[in-house]
Amino acid sequence: MKFFVDTVNIDDIRLAHDLGILSGVTTNPSLVAKEGVDFRSRLQEITAIVNGSVSAEVIATEAEDMYKEGKELAAIAPNITVKVPMTLDGLKAVKAFKEEGIETNVTLVFSGAQALLAARAGATYVSPFIGRLDDIGHSGVSLIGEIANIFNVHNIDTQIIAASVRHPMHVTEVAKQGANIATIPPKIIHQLIQHPLTDKGLDAFLADWEKAKGD
Ligand code: E4P
After folding, report:
1. Which residues constitute the catalytic centre (predicted)?
2. How confident is the model at residue 178 (pLDDT cuts 50, 70, 90)?
3. I want to staple 93 with a disulfide (CB 3.0 to 4.6 A). Which of 22, 36, 58, 66 is the partner?
4. pLDDT (tens digit, 9 = 90+) per residue, 22-69?
């Protein structure tokens, strides 16, 4: 499983890149609003740092407008992936982008059937939102397993991005269930790195080394 970061914060993206773990970035309108940045110029900055896919979401809701908007976003850099919502118009737009060789990420996926439809329409990626499913009492992690199974049985090469990841356990669980990618908030990278036994062990090694050195 690869890691994407789910943010438009440039320092967080740079840090993940410097750690050598970064295969891509996902963004969404809420993250852009939170950061208060100009979306297109921020996309330019992000795509200059990251070699992999950078998802940029369309705001339009009708297929033709999605297509127009997506083409403009895709023109920003070759590694832009156009993010499209899982709607009837979204699927039409995905088909059109596929014919043009433009990568797409179908977002707001909450069922195996939606993922299958998106894949058949030509999506490069599907993004099941696991945390939001957990919020309403369904298992987001199980959905990842279900989609991985469907794609496997039917030889579908659309990549599964586990999205709406809320805590470190989600990351290991979706990796076990067959997600190709987890897109994670930067805070979770720090949580994943830390372990109290690592800290304790390092403290002991450093203290022993001080003793071994003598005066
Ligand atoms: C993914 O592409 C989305 O940007 C994101 O994971 C949504 O997460 P949230 O449910 O925490 O907003």
Report:
1. 83
2. very high
3. 66
4. 999 999 999 999 999 999 999 999 999 999 999 999 999 999 999 999
User: Which of the four pLDDT bands, split at 50, 70 and 90, describes residue 215?
Assistant: low
Q: Is the pLDDT of residue 214 over 80?
A: no
Q: CB of 132 closer than 6 A to ligand 1? A: yes
Ligand 1 center from residue 162 Cα (angstroms): 9
Among 2, 34, 71, 83, the active-site one is: 83
CA-nearest residue for atom 6, ligand 1, is 164
Cα–Cα distance for residue pair 144/52, rounded to 1 Å: 22
**Which of 91, 58, 50, 51 minimizes the C-alpha distance to 74?**
58
* Number of other residues whose CB lies within 10 A of the CB of residue 142: 14
In degrees and rounded to multiples of 5, residue 60 shows phi and psi of -60, 155
Instruction: Write the single-letter amino acid at 168.
Output: P
Tokens linked to 58? 């369309």
213 pLDDT tier (thresholds 50, 70, 90): confident
Ligand 1 contacts CB of residue 53 (under 6 A): no
- The second-level CATH assignment, the architecture, of 2-214 is Alpha-Beta Barrel (3.20)
ipTM surpasses 0.95: yes
Separation CA 114–CA 87 (nearest Å): 9
Residue nearest ligand 1's atom 8 by CA: 164
Residue 92 a catalytic site member: no
